Amino acid sequence: MSLKELYHRFRTWQKRPSYHWDKGAAAHRCPNCGHEFTGNYCPICGQQTGDGRITWRWVWKSILDVWGMDSRSLPYTLLQLLLRPGYLISDYISGHRQACYKPVNMLFIMAIFYVIVAQLSGHNVSSTRTPIDYGTNSLLSIFSWISSHPAWSAMSLTTIMILPTYLLFRFAPRHTRHTLPESIFIQLFMCTLLLICSLASILFDWLFWLVPFYYYITYRQFFGYRPWSTLWRLLVSAFVWILLLSSVFIILMIIAGTDHLATSGDTEFVINDIDNNGVLPILGFFLLPAAILLAIGYFIGKRTAHTQSTDIQQ
Fold first, then answer.
1. Mean of pLDDT over the chain
2. Widest CA span of the chain, in angstroms?
């Protein structure tokens, strides 16, 4: 089989993973019932073509079948998530969910696996001793919780991408006018990819940079924009994500400082001091550009939606 044919089969599998290649027009004799037929399955008893002597692959498949991990298995869904992320999410959003492991369950299983691997490899961030400075008790508690709960922290970080994705990709050629609940499930899959890249980075730090690569590939496959249209929307989304995350961080800093000094009965002074030092205007400094960028991107997408042309089959 040539490389070109292998690539063609890979691209076909990316778009239609349930597609079965015809194993030839030659007649086969079913080893189970003896019926002669052409195709991939016997029309009498349903046995698959090629089921002959028992191999190691057959042993592995039988073990997976015992635990219900066949066509809807977690390993197979993770493989699809790595090789065809946007198409997998598109299948799930479109209702083709039979062959997909439940994304919420998949995320938490991967989070547990991440914690186990991090503990065994000595990368447990939560066990790191950090000196506690004045007014940072609450903030350190938050960071400790984040490092101890990778699934929830990954969901929290990627949740910030829901709004930019919803507004900037609102008028995409594929999945036009997708809903906010659908955006939530898009980010659930991206959370799992984030954890996989985090696991890979335990071995090699540079593998964590696969995250922006996977965001581009996933959004390109899922929404169907051309490369440049996908890229600039993702860059704007990332910039808005940074602004919103900075706003959340400022809010946590305010809560941490206020909570620390509230125990001394100086709460009113602390709140006034925060306001006088201009922290609230700084918060607006991050939120206002984020709102402007989202509004501009939304109206550009809406205005160019009727002229947007793309090859959906590409």
1. 76
2. 89
Nearest to 119 by CA among 109, 129, 128: 128
What is the reported pTM? 0.72
Residue whose token pair is 């004045």: 134
Q: What are phi and psi of 39, to 5 degrees?
A: 125, -165
pLDDT in tens, 239-272: 999 999 888 877 776 666 554 444 444 444 444 4
Strand partners, 41: 48
Across the range 278-292, mean pLDDT stands at 79
Residue type, 173: P
Tell me how far apart the alpha carbons of residues 119 and 99 are, in angstroms, rounded to a whole number. Answer: 32
To the nearest 10 degrees (0 to 180), the angle between helices 74-83 and 85-94 is 120
Per residue, the 3-state secondary structure of the chain, as one string, reads CCHHHHHHHHHHHHHCCCCCCCCCCCCEECCCCCCEECCCECCCCCCECCCCCCCHHHHHHHHHHHCCCCCCCHHHHHHHHHHCHHHHHHHHHHCCCCCCCCHHHHHHHHHHHHHHHHHHHCCCHHHCCCCCCCCCHHHHHHHHHHHHCHHHHHHHHHHCCHHHHHHHCCCCCCCCCCCHHHHHHHHHHHHHHHHHHHHHHHHCHHHHHHHHHHHHHHHHHHHCCCHHHHHHHHHHHHHHHHHHHHHHHHHHHHHHHHHHHHCCCCHHHHHHHHHHCCHHHHHHHHHHHHHHHHHHHHHHHHHCHHHCCCCCCC
Measure CA 80 to chain center.
12
Closest C-alpha to 90, from 194, 233, 217? 217
Asked whether the beta carbons of 237 and 165 are under 8 A apart, the reply is yes
Written as one letter, the residue type at 102 is K
